[in-house]
Amino acid sequence: MSDDILRFENVSKTFPGVKALKDVSFSIRRGDVHVLLGENGAGKSTLIKILTGVYQADEGGAIYLNNTPVKIHDTLQSRSLGIGTVFQENSLIPHLNVAENVFLTRELRSKSGAVDWNRTYQECERWIRELGVDHINPRTQVRRLSVADQQIVEIVKVFSQNPSIVILDEPTSALSDNEIDNLFRIIETLKAKGVTFIYVSHRMEEIKRIGDRATIFRDGAVTGEIEDCKTADMDQVINMIVGRTLEEKFPHRESHIGDVLLDVRDLQVPNTIYDISFQVRKGEVLGFSGLVGSGRTSTAKAIVGAIQRTAGEIWIGGEKVKITSPSEAIEHGIGYLPEDRKTEGLILSKSVKENISLPSLLKKFRRGIVLDGRKERAAAEEYREKLRIKTPSINRLVNFLSGGNQQKVVFAKWLCSEANIYIFDEPTRGIDVGAKSEIYQIINDLVSQGAAVIVISSELPEILGICDRIIVMRDGRITADLDRADATQELIMSYSI
């Protein structure tokens, strides 16, 4: 008991229509990396939000910090207790620069009371060096940073507060392998100083690498514990998480590749991508691999008109098409699942139903001059069931769903649109192991029906597991076009760096 820094006893949380946590009890040892495992909607994020003061637990349970009962009423109190959090979705203010975000609400001031900007930038630079990410300038506006670099700024912000407990919620989802190595190095350094970590991840390989102990959640309850992550049997762990075995991580698919459906020729965006040319055929899954900043996402955005290209042509089914906006891409049968779901993929103030049906309103759900509400509801229910979106109702606002279930809603809306060409940018980011297998099967179903699918992913096993062909990018250019039979992780990395 004396080694426990944190203990939960019978903690519950109820929302209208759903019991998010059910009598959760477990303890966390000082200086451990304690992993929380479970499918999306299992209760992990709800527990974290209670610990950080975003939510308050129902009456009857208790939280003990250093063997002392605590009630955490808000985020400031949580921080004052030495708890820092890096959420999966960043909370940075885009128009402020990196240093301003890192020290927001705890500004470094001179004796006169004014903000001491010299000291602020010096301290920010010191913490950036500690993280080994010297390429980030403390004076750069956050909105000008990539998603990966924004995640790094979140980590800098939390670590600079010298917390005793750090919660990391999917911290590596937007990081490259080198950045993950840096993060794990820092975790090990701080562990040696007695810092405790609560680590949430769906990446099984990370659990063995960084975890000490683990607690498994399913449907709001604790269903199992792992005493030693390093020696755990991952097949058994997956079974404990999802309540069933996953026969194959990457479902088998017979490839029946047809004629060219999408032909991209000499695509250019100034200072971003250069002379990008490739083809995707009916029934083919084409993977895009490369390090963060290699130009993969910019290529996708240039194709769908989300950023303007200065040169290049797009041909669909043998015909040259004009695409200058995402709405025109939809008209030409292209569905795009963006890397950043919250700012680009969802309308958080709208319901699950409204988000799923949005790209298809005029094409599928219009009856004369009005919408066919019954048909819209039926479609939303169909995709809710197919993707196992955990929500008490399709009328629930997307903002109240877990991050993984929000990702499923983005996926559902493009499936509902019945496009011919799909571009999925990090489609399984923040998705649990059970849902990943289901999404891989959906991708298989799409190509078996003759669609062309582009998958952009930072996970090499995923790229190798589901793609027929793999394009590798570096510094805005294509460096390799590989058949899956010839590709290995080592070969892909050699073309990436």
Automatic annotation (TrEMBL):
Assigned keywords, A-Z: ATP-binding, Cell membrane, Membrane, Nucleotide-binding, Repeat, Sugar transport, Translocase, Transport
Record field: transmembrane: none
Alphabetized GO MF terms: ATP binding
Residue span, ABC transporter domain: 6-244, 255-495
Top-level division of the source organism's lineage: Bacteria
Keyword presence, Translocase: yes
CDD domains: ABC_Carb_Monos_I, ABC_Carb_Monos_II
Gene3D superfamilies: P-loop containing nucleotide triphosphate hydrolases (3.40.50.300)
Protein name: Sugar ABC transporter ATP-binding protein
